Amino acid sequence: MQTQPEGGFTAPNPHRPAETAADFTITQAWDAYTPEEHDRWRRLFERQAEILKDRAAPEFLAGLDALAIAADGIPDFRRLNDELSRRTGWQIVAVPGLVPEAIFFDHLAHKRFPSTCFIRREDQFDYIQEPDVFHDVFGHVPLLSNPVFADYMQAYGEGGLKALRLGTLDQLARLYWYTVEFGLIQTPQGLRIYGAGIVSSEGESRFSLESAEPNRLGFDVRRLLRTRYRIDDFQETYFVIDSYRQLFDATLPDFTPHYEALKTLPELEPGTVLDSDRVFTRGTGRVKRH
Questions:
Q1: What is the rounded distance in angstroms from the CA atom of residue 20 to the CA atom of residue 108?
Q2: Is residue 144 within 8 Å of residue 153, measured between CB atoms?
Q3: What are phi and psi of 101, to 5 degrees?
Q4: Longest CA span, the chain
């Protein structure tokens, strides 16, 4: 889980070897998982699969099926990569936790998604602050089988490398946060979840769609780049895209004009609603704690 792409945090990993490669990759060591760890995956998967039936974006659910990500145990990255590569050219690479920014963006720019290998402990079953393999694989990987979303992720990686050179990473990180991690999409059936931070969370899967507390606002890339976020609570605002094509088209152009405009615009607190916003839901502003 790269929920803090601006940071270089490394999560504790019982499967981490003593040395990592220069690009922070390691081997998954799938054979080292214990029966208890596979069972923990099964219970997490079954809980989320039930919750997400009428809440997740259809492309996310289709991705689970297409990649055969199921309740039968922690997936072997080698098997996933065979199918994912065939569909969109992407690969999953195992890493020990969150990796340095330049490494993270370079992986994405070359169609490699960095995934942690360890699975949360039993006492972290309902909430874990750092990334684990359930969040990364269950939450992120299904949509990498969708060609348009996969292209968006690659474009984001390329944009991240440029943002590092320009010193604008704080702004660009907000795009990842409010889309890849906590994005909603408008569908003919209503709002649905596609963000990995939501689909992998029991509480936020319900909260993001059903609570009266958060704002749900139409996606606008410059507006989003101005909006701060918090990592210790459910979101005060969710941004809603009309399609993955909208997301890709907004990300593909050079962001330099956005960064120049942001120098003269005030930053926005997470719960702010502007008169210019396309408002799906104006929240009460009382966000529930984890």
A1: 18
A2: yes
A3: -55, -50
A4: 55
Q: Whole-number mean pLDDT of the chain?
A: 92
pLDDT by residue (tens digit) across 205-247? 999 999 999 999 999 999 999 999 988 889 999 999 999 999 9
Give the phi and the psi of residue 72 in degrees, each rounded to 5.
-85, 10
CA 188 – CA 71 distance, rounded (Å): 29
User: Position 110: which residue type?
Assistant: H
Spatial contact of 9 and 24, defined as CB atoms under 8 Å apart: no
Token pair recorded at residue 2: 């790269």
Confidence of residue 285 (pLDDT cuts 50, 70, 90): confident
pTM of the entire structure? 0.92
| Residue 68: C-alpha distances to residues 133, 155, 237 (Å) | 16, 26, 32
Q: How far is CA 80 from CA 83, 86, 140, 228, in A?
A: 6, 10, 13, 34
Gap between the Cα atoms of 231 and 238, Å rounded? 14
Sequence-distant (≥ 6) Cβ neighbours of residue 286 within 8 angstroms: 213
